[in-house]
Amino acid sequence: MSRRIVVTGAGRGIGLGIATRLIADGHEVWGTARNPDAATDLAAVGPAGILQLDIGDDASIDAFGEALAGQVDSIDGLINNAGMNSGDLGVDRRAQGPLQTTKPIVMQQIEINAVGPMLVTQRVRPLLGAGTNPVVLNVSSQLGSMVVGAKMPFDVGYNASKSVMNMVTVMSATADPDVSYVALHPGWVQSDMGGPKAAVSVADSANGIVDVFNDLTLADSGRFVTWEGAEHPW
User: Fold this and answer.
1) What is the pLDDT of residue 194?
2) Is pTM, for the whole model, over 0.90?
3) Mean of the per-residue pLDDT values for the chain?
4) Sign (positive or negative) of CA dihedral 191, 233, 212, 46
5) Higher pLDDT, 176 or 187
6) 66, 140, 217, 224 from 107: Cα distances, Å
7) Contact 159, 152 (CB under 8 A)
């Protein structure tokens, strides 16, 4: 059955991989990008539309919500994939730890990686309510886990932002029992963020994420899972 799904950050990396797989499977996909005109790889795979969205900009989030609502009357899924790390802000790896980083760097990552997706979800919640078996999949990270993050004391802003995303996910699951909210670790992926030495290809991660997404129901709401479908420690 074809579903209507929004994928944020779909212009490259994991987001592009997810959108490509969903479109190949026959779903109606609406992708977002900060610069839609530059999202040529996404345009080439045939999405239903490419909408402008900067998840760090409240006005952009509002405009995105209005634009989407002006073109569809429902969606069945939202995959909050867009995000960034300290490297994207130009911060040297040696300056990303809890004893070196700065307040602006940490707060900007929390705003973009956790608060932004929360606001995007708020804006499209009416459309999800009109959808079938609606799912919000928040692409988090193992680094947002207290168990894993304790062993990797670098980029505290990124780790903290994914922990906040995880908290938003579980609280949303409790507050909104009509939508399934799930956090997911995509693996250490060979994307611009993960780098070429990462363990998982973009295609493998994206395919795993879509397989997990396809099987999610209300019974899964509030879970933290991996791209392979296993339970992830909080």
Assistant:
1) 65
2) yes
3) 94
4) negative
5) 176
6) 27, 17, 33, 23
7) yes
